[in-house]
Amino acid sequence: MKYIFVFLAVFLFNCNNDKKDVTLNKDDRVTESVDATQQDTSLKIYDFAGVEKYLNYNDDKTYIVNFWATWCAPCVKELPYFEKIGADYKSEDVEVILVSLDFPKHYESKLKPFIAEKKLQSKVIVLNDVDSNSWIPKVNENWSGAIPATLIYNNDKRQFYEQSFSYEELETELKQFLK
């Protein structure tokens, strides 16, 4: 029940009643693909079933999965740290995945221009699944639903953080995962 209140509070505070209908493709869960910049970049939009694979890779990499939105000031403030970590630790098999929780009506007007303006190099995907009561506890059973939130994991360890990071804090946490 607490997830409903958190989601509704965030939704009502940041969005009006203008909604966009999106149909899910049951095969790959991509709801739509849109160009994120003038280059050959596309924005993949998934329901939680499509995003879930990004939370459970089983290979030799360490993954940093950050849940964020363009309307979240602490999220935007920490994004450069995730970008820098991704670049600084790429040779150590670290991959950053940025999961946007932006509202569908803002994909074209806010999210795509933001990605282009900030020249984000990390993989950006969009989670478009209104059943937050279902998917929030699947990410982490203690997550209130607040963002920013980050999952760092590899084959040996998994840790969830419901907080914002400085570069130094993020690097300190990441180093616990590196061999």
Task: Summarize, please.
By secondary structure, the chain is an alpha/beta fold.
Describe the structure.
The chain is an alpha/beta fold and 179 residues long. Helices cover 35% and strands 22% of the residues. It contains six helices and seven strands, in the order αββαβαβαβαββα. The protein has helices spanning 2-14, 48-51, 73-88, 107-118, 132-139, 167-175; strands at residues 30-35, 42-46, 62-68, 94-100, 123-127, 149-153, 158-161. The chain has a seven-stranded mixed β-sheet. Strand 6 (149-153) and strand 7 form a beta hairpin. The radius of gyration is 16 Å and the shape is globular. The N and C termini lie far apart (39 Å).
Question: How would a textbook summarize the main sheet?
Answer: 7 strands, mixed
List the quaternary state of the chains.
single chain
> What is the ordering of alpha helices and beta strands?
HEEHEHEHEHEEH
Q: What is the overall shape?
A: globular
Uncertain segments: 3-41
The tally of strands reads: 7
Measured distance between first and last alpha carbons: 39 Å
Neighbour order of strands in the largest sheet? 1-2-5-4-3-6-7
Write down the overall mean pLDDT: 83
Strand content: 15-25%
Q: Radius of gyration from the CA trace?
A: 16 Å
- Binned, the helix content reads 25-40%
